[in-house]
Design brief:
Layout lengths: L18 H6 L8 E3 L6 H6 L3 E6 L2 H25 L5 H17 L4 H13 L28 H13 L1 E6 L2 H4 L8 E4 L22 H16 L3 E7 L2 H6 L4 E8 L10 E8 L2
Amino acid sequence: MNLNTSPFVKWAGGKKQLVDRLRSRMPEAYATYYEPFIGGGALFLDVQPHKAVINDTNKQLVNIYRQLKENAEEVIAAVNLLDAQPTDVDRYLRLRVAYNQKITANELDAECAALMIWINKHCFNGLYRVNSKGLFNVPYNNRTGGASIDENNLRNIGILLKNNDIEIRQGDFETACFDISPSDFVYFDSPYIPISNTANFSDYTKDGFSLEDHKRLADLYRRLDSIGVKAMLSNHNVPLVYELYEGFRIEAVDVRRAINSDASKRVGKEVIVTNY
């Protein structure tokens, strides 16, 4: 049964607009689908594999997937409760404090999931950014009301996660692939390599994603290739990608940049790297 599912959060680097092109480049057959940087999960939610391992370093994001698998109705009810009142900057900041208290206390429950979803719809540009203490610090986007979720979408994601063999992991991308086999397929949607030389390597966790991490990812890609794993990766169309993935098939594709404060920079190119 093909469920109608789509990303429940706006996420930097989200691949909703690239899904058709990514899917068309996937291998026809594989055993287990791996996605070590799940993010908003656009490709995963489109492909809907029967057996998969999904992972992210962001604990709060992973918690949403786990809560939806466990009890989507509880998450839906909690978001609807947050949506029941009109919002202004004071209420947004109060709820942001409540969310950060959950982060500090490591309370990964349905309420934490609901707060993250709600805040994602009410924060500036849908950014997920934390400070050095790991606390969310994105300002308000002036949205006063409206639904923060599509109830049926969350319900269907819960069904997809529960009714299939989907393992949800939280941690480093390399660790997430520890048990991958030659018959499996992996899609890497890692944090972007900066387009300009003056930009900083950064991620949406306090630890960041450094140049060394990108080199480590490229090393992992080559190791997986050497044992026969089919691998696909996407990133910005920048020289470093061609350097790191020299020898593999690299295709440039046009994209729109949904998250950029400068509207003139919301166009660009990305690359899709495959080893098959």
